[in-house]
Amino acid sequence: MGFSTVITTLLLATGFLGFSSAVPTYQNSSDTGSQASSWWFAQIEREGKAVYAPEGYKVFRNVKDFGAVGDGITDDSDAINAAMGHGDGGVRCYLNCDSRTSTPAIAYFPPGTYLVSKPLIPLYYTHMVGDIVSPPTLKASANFTGIAVIDANPYDNFGNNAWTNQNNFFRQVRNFVIDLTAQPFTTGTGIHWQVAQATSLQNMIFNMRTDGGTANAQQGVFIENGSGGFLTDLTFNGGKYGMFIGSQQFTARSLTFNDCDTAIFLNWDWLWTFHGLAINRCRVGINMANGGSSGAQTVGSMLLLDSEVANTQIGILTAHDPASTWTNGSLILDNVDMSSTPIAIQNDITEATILAGNARIASWAQGRTSTGTGPSQAIQGSIPDIQRPASLVDSEGRFVTRSKPQYAEYLASAFLRAKDNGCAGDGVTDDTAAIQALFNSATPDQIVYFDHGAYIITDTIQVPKNIKIVGEIWPLLLASGDANFKDQNNPKPMFRVGEPGDVGNVEMIDLMIETKGPQPGAILMEWNIAGTKPGDAGLWDVHFRIGGTVGTDLQLDKCAKTPEVETEPNPECLGAWMLTHLTEQSSGYFENVWWWVSDHELDIQGWGQINIYNGRGVLIESTKGAWFWGTASEHSVLYNYQFNRAKDVFLGHIQTETAYMQGNPDALVPFTVNAAYNDPDFAAYCAAHSIQADRCPRTWGLRAIDSTDILLYGAGMYSFFDNYAQECVGLNNCQDHMTSLEGETSVQFFGVSTKAAVSMITIDGEPAALDSENRNSFCATLITFAV
């Protein structure tokens, strides 16, 4: 989630883009199109049930069952929108509905070419999934009218979105070709992707016109604001812009741009991390110069890693002025090959060459830099080569990446379905024993499949090594019961992944992990496994969500915020003890994972703010290599990310937010300090290191104790409230400290942005980087910080 009152550049859409009133109805047929693929996703038996939806509600929808033809001739717009909007009694979340988790939907597209003349609108909590064996094409007709082929957040005629942009969660679009070539070159957008956390685009190709010269206005991805998000494995051919984008924060990797005028127009951001870009034959690689120089440049920071810009006139356009006191336009290049691009970086205002091209750029930075001693310094130039631990890189020296497995080579017969193996998934039945038996029975060549549902777990489940686990649109796995997860003095894991010392493969994909009611002694996941090789053990699109949704019993009706009265934590509104613990001998790969303690209600109308008290976010003690791509950890009481004697950890963009209610009460309650896990002791710390009278005991965004070789590329760590009041946001003093480095700790931080913490980074209790010295467009930003 992001700051609700920030105003960003808005490019208004053309008219309201709603569903047609004359739409096909569900046929419940065995259309041969659904049998056209051998992919397991098309063939597996579907018993998933949304247990909090009306009886008969369908989670899985094949668009051909709603009348879509996919022949490239028939207009399939209404049929596809009917598939995504289908629900008895209009229960899917659209108009006058800011969010709803009880009615998820998968819209599956068999192979084919689907002609569309109006936007396809995936409603809240929708997965649009094309066939991976033969990805379908969504082709805009010559007379297409609307903002984009796919519109993830429609505007009405007054400029109002269907959903609040920074709360537009829980969406996926994957495995499609989007074709704009039949449209006039003066118009056309592939996808309007105005989204927030727990969202992703994966494995997509955008084909656009290459003619028209400067009149070509086509673009693949359009993002005007939001609070995302994750993009991966996208290819853009032609067009004016591959992507025209702006958001609070985002992660994008493995993107290819061919023959675009400008590959990426970065309109604004607080931070954006790019990895693995391949930009070919474009006029401009990345334009981040919007707004002009000094404090007007709208891009806060950008990080570009392990990328290539080839046969392109200008690699990067910027308007950053190193003489300015503002840090807008902060930039890192790390291992970027511009051997065939003559100008690597150009000043968009003066047209002066800042960095010549025709070379590989090892490490280069612009912005402000600090080593923790004295004020930060302006920099615009080469920096010492960034040293990467060998355990974190592949054979070519690039940071390890691995896209979410989709198991294209597997047939449905390889899957062990939970509901076919004794699990009820009804939100009532205790499924602990059945899930354990299911895991124990799985062989390495099989895949455990959780049909959508709500699975109650009342004791620790041992996840063995060499297992694959996939969920159907985030089945709910809930820590529950009145015994095993109640004692915060004796915390206990719900999922124990591997035994200490285990080496092997674990893949967990598309799962939602929660608590049912207060479980203040639950460690939701203890991660012991180390991958056989980098990336073998990991989580992809697995989210930890505490409270705020139906079925959790931690909702607005009992946990509403109470800023107007002195507040003691409500025992009925406690979450978990810790969300995830990476133990010493582990390694792990975590991509697009959101550890979120709900700050507001998602299901009860009104969607008001709530007080949920969750002890700790992510504790990382791993020493064998860990990778975090596009992760966020928000609103825990003590810390969001903590590194304790950790070693060799890569973080490619993290986002944190301080618990909103803090100040009433503060971080001293309700969780007691547990020295065995090296918890922060705010009582002792703040007695010695307070800056203001009463704003020291607040959630640590990041805390590192005796940890080495922690590499962080992009961090947005925000404090938006003091007891829900926001006067402190403009004054940048909602809390004293945001990041704590303690003991024998060595870090390399790049693109660190904080909001409303007086001290951005603190070393052994002493401020080492101040907000006031590093002001950016909204945050304070350091482009490099190393100790």
UniProtKB/TrEMBL annotation:
One of its GO terms (molecular function) is polygalacturonase activity. The keyword Mitochondrion does not apply. Residues 60-287, 417-473 form the Rhamnogalacturonase A/B/Epimerase-like pectate lyase domain. It holds the Pfam family Pect-lyase_RHGA_epim. InterPro entries: Pectin_lyas_fold (IPR012334), Pectin_lyase_fold/virulence (IPR011050), QRT3-like (IPR039279), RHGA/B-epi-like_pectate_lyase (IPR024535). Keywords: Signal. Residues 1-22 form the signal peptide. This is Glucan 1,3-beta-glucosidase. It comes from Plectosphaerella plurivora.
